[in-house]
Automatic annotation (TrEMBL):
It is found in: Endomembrane system. InterPro entries: NrtA/CpmA_ABC-bd_dom. This is Nitrate transporter component, NrtA. GO terms for cellular component: endomembrane system. It comes from the Bacteria. The keyword Coiled coil does not apply. It comes from Sinorhizobium fredii (strain NBRC 101917 / NGR234).
Length: 434
């Protein structure tokens, strides 16, 4: 029996349509506003940074006060404690918050996605050398071949009595955690038994790999290429290899703030939509890279950021190259639309890996995290039709999951049970409670 069919279907429809939300404010009612926004130094904060730097927010009467943070836990807490009005957040964070998961859950909603793409999995050069021997890999090895070669190394290490590999993710409720687990499991590796997963803040991943504190990590740009250019890591898979349109970062806010400031929310969405369109244009990449490279934002070499924006990768210390079309999509294809079916896919991963149970209440809570009605209110006819809210994910030829699975939001239980590798118990609380 699936979970979605047990929801009161009228509730799901009302969530998508926006019933029960406050009516739009009269234009000009709230006046000029300063909106304080927390962010992590990653390229996928580009839309927020561009909105502040290139006049898109100011055009809508908003001053974006951007505050750089070092960890997702800090972003979560400062939003909850009203030190931020909005925040650059991992796409699963609002879902986790509405489910009451984590050490400081506070209601959080996402009316806007900040784009797609940007993640990759990087393993240490030493570990990759072991994989080459175990799996006969060449420079063109696929993400699945790399995962299977890692599985062979893990089996050999276990037979020799060596400790499990330590792999870094940026946050327990993150696309990085679920994508790393998805990749590992596709290769036959149990993420909870065969390796040790730890939390490492994004800017520290390359240093942790260089110091041998971890054997690999999944993180957003530019930190994967920073590791490969330093000669300490090899990029073995990207987000596009695992699932091209997997949700990445969103604009998070407290629901009561959105209710109290409806016009500001709409104006902010309009500004971010314009900034996202600008970020997508190839002719703007040089200016965007220059802005992102500043120390107050991402603080990474401008050449690396420019190449990352273009999807041009140095994947290993030997200088092997890979070009990925649309590695970052900031606007095209409704990349900013907070699709409820993607919130449900995130929920399915939380269930798959033992972070929560599958229930009608959990499904409804997950749906309440993404607010397409606020997006539609701001953008009107520019938004996708309501029929797109509960799309079957991974069914299009150019948008497949790496293992061939398809996610139907009406069949969540069947989807989870179809995987041969999944949790049988809750993960280590030390990871879950960070």
């Amino acid at each position: 029996m699936n979970a979605l069919t047990h929801i009161d279907q009228s509730k799901a429809s009302k969530l998508a349509a926006g019933d029960g939300l406050p009516a739009p404010a009269i234009a000009g009612h709230e006046g000029s506003r300063t909106v304080r926004a927390g962010f992590i130094p990653l390229v996928d904060a580009a839309v927020l940074i561009a909105a502040a730097e290139f006049g898109f927010a100011q055009k809508e009467g908003i001053t974006l006060d951007l505050v750089k943070e070092v960890s997702w836990a800090n972003v979560r807490d400062r939003l909850a404690f009203r030190q931020f009005d909005v925040a650059h957040m991992l796409s699963p964070m609002p879902v986790a918050a509405m489910l009451g998961l984590g050490s400081n859950p506070s209601p959080t909603i996402a009316p806007f996605s900040l784009g797609r793409g940007g993640n990759a999995i990087t393993l240490s050069s030493r570990l990759y050398a072991d994989m080459q021997m175990a799996g006969d890999l060449d420079a063109g090895a696929t993400a699945l071949s790399n995962a299977q070669a890692l599985a062979a190394v893990i089996r050999r290490n276990r037979a020799a009595g060596r400790p499990p590999l330590t792999l870094g993710v940026t946050y327990p409720f993150s696309s990085h955690n679920y994508e790393f687990r998805y990749w590992l499991a596709a290769g036959g590796i149990d993420p909870d038994r065969d390796v040790k997963l730890v939390v490492v803040p994004p800017p520290m991943t390359s240093d942790a790999l260089a110091a041998s504190a971890i054997d690999g990590f999944c993180v957003g740009a530019p930190w994967n290429m920073v590791a490969s250019e330093r000669g300490v890591g090899r990029i073995v898979a990207t987000k596009q290899d695992i699932w091209p349109s997997a949700p990445e970062k969103v604009l998070g806010m407290r629901p009561e703030w959105a209710d109290a400031n409806p016009e500001t929310v709409s104006r902010l969405i309009v500004a971010l939509d314009a900034a996202a369109r600008w970020c997508d244009a190839a002719e703007n990449r040089a200016a965007l890279a220059e802005a992102l490279a500043e120390q107050r934002y991402v603080g990474a070499p401008v050449d690396i950021i420019r190449r990352v924006l273009a999807g041009e990768f140095t994947i290993d210390p030997e200088g092997n190259q890979r070009v990925i079309d649309d590695y970052f999509v900031f606007h095209a294809g409704f990349a900013n639309f907070p699709r409820p079916s993607q919130a449900l896919w995130i929920y399915s991963q939380m269930v798959r890996w033992g972070q929560t149970a599958l229930s009608t209440e959990g499904t409804e809570a997950s749906l309440s995290a993404y607010r397409p009605a606020l997006y539609r209110r701001a953008l009107g006819r520019l938004a996708p039709p309501a029929m797109d809210d509960f799309a079957v994910e991974g069914a299009m030829p150019d948008d497949r999951f790496m293992d061939g699975h398809i996610f139907d939001p009406k069949l969540i239980r069947d989807y989870i049970e179809a995987f041969p590798v999944k949790a049988t118990s809750l993960p280590d609380a030390s990871l879950d409670d960070i």
